[in-house]
Amino acid sequence: MTTDGSLKKGLRARHMTMIALGGSIGTGLFLASGTAISTAGPGGALIAYAAVGIMVYFLMTSLGELATFMPDSGSFNTYAARFVDPALGFAMGWNFWYNWAVTIAAELAAATVLIKYWFPDSSSMLWSLLFLVLIFALNVLSVKGYGESEYWFAIIKVATVIIFLTVGVLMIFGILGGEAVGFSNFTVGDAPIHGGFFAVLGVFMAAGFSFQGTELIGVAAGESENPRENVPRAIRQVFWRILIFYILAITVISLIIPYTHPNLLKGDLENIGVSPFTLVFEKAGLAIAASVMNAVILTSVLSAGNSGMYASSRVLYALARDGKAPRFLGRLNKKGIPMNALLVTTAVGMLAFLASLFGDGIVYTWLLNASGMCGFITWLGIAISHYRFRRAYVAQGRDLKDLPYRARWFPFGPIFAFVLCIVVIIGQNYQAFTGDQIDWSGALVAYLSVPLFLILWLGYKWIKKTKVVPLQECDFTTSAE
């Protein structure tokens, strides 16, 4: 092992595009979209997903400006430490690591639920171990191994969505499945918007979780062959593809399946047979739809676990390199893999083994709730870091024309993203406070991530006596690698 080497630049343009794309198309689209339509109606679901999509666009352009100027696997914590406050960088790094390390465990637990669709009496521990070994192997071979596996995982998901959209359009116009559906389901009941403002707000929060993963491109930039070209290209392509896929898919589902359909609410891991995608395929006469969608969703959760392993190990390595984690985690092997950081992260992933002791669905839900709002906190940090970066860049007399990639709509973009993230964080579980009695248990699960983040931030600030970095002193010159 060595501490002198550097991460290998093994990710190509196609890998970068698919890492961001694959990180966002998953269970949020294949499963949660049905619940969103049922809760807020077709119009409400479209409004919520479009609004979050716009916010994500601004966040992606902010991250693009930062990552092309300073490609670094520490990404968010490096930018926050340099342009805001070292304490914020410390807190953001550990928040991001915790979020994705727990995601590994959550996705492995989900994979055991999915595999039992075919093997109902098999051992949860056996499947958890098998899938954990698989994603560990993909990450330990080389960064190219991770990039290549994520590329093919994403191809499967994209192909499924394209086939779904094609079948759906043919059904809407009556070319497939008999009678033309038309637009009648957009006027069923009180559609297009059902449940009013708070129903749309609830879907808005769920949509935010669906889009999480796009920020992985910021971590991957540190190992990209040519980040100044590959990152902007990936950001431009990914945003429009994701937005089109989500908006078109929700439109197709809404036109074919009325929001009043009882099975839309049951689109969860234990009811793959009633995923909205499955409902549409079955209505088209494709009898094997449930098995096919189960297989696709299985690749989705493995893809998320694979990405979680990669991202969390890189950020842990960067924290160690910057003196914010134990030094042994900052060592690289001959292949440029942060092996110790990978092993520690894998150990957290072994929490998935609890699935065999306490029941698969319960553990999956608990682990997912444990990571809470970490993703929104990361987005909040990206918006703050970009705002400070641009102000410091100008304050030090630098020319904006020299930036490899410049985010449009500044300062509106990061401010808009900041405000929306605050709204989502505060309103995450507003229902806990609206009843006759406060639901303290629900509030704790929903908001636990916030006090944990504040303890990390303020604790480091108090111990290290850090201060907000003056704009004139922000470091644009030194290399992180």
TrEMBL record:
The keyword Transmembrane applies. One of its GO terms (cellular component) is membrane. It comes from the Bacteria. It is found in: Membrane. Keywords: Amino-acid transport, Membrane, Transmembrane, Transmembrane helix, Transport. The chain crosses the membrane at residues 46-67, 97-119, 125-143, 155-176, 196-217, 238-259, 284-304, 337-358, 364-389, 409-428, 440-460. Pfam families: AA_permease. InterPro entries: AA-permease/SLC12A_dom (IPR004841), Amino_acid_permease_CS (IPR004840), APC_YAT (IPR050524). It is a multi-pass membrane protein. Residues 15-468 form the Amino acid permease/ SLC12A domain. One of its GO terms (molecular function) is amino acid transmembrane transporter activity. PROSITE patterns: AMINO_ACID_PERMEASE_1 (PS00218). This is Amino acid permease. It comes from Paenibacillus xylanilyticus.
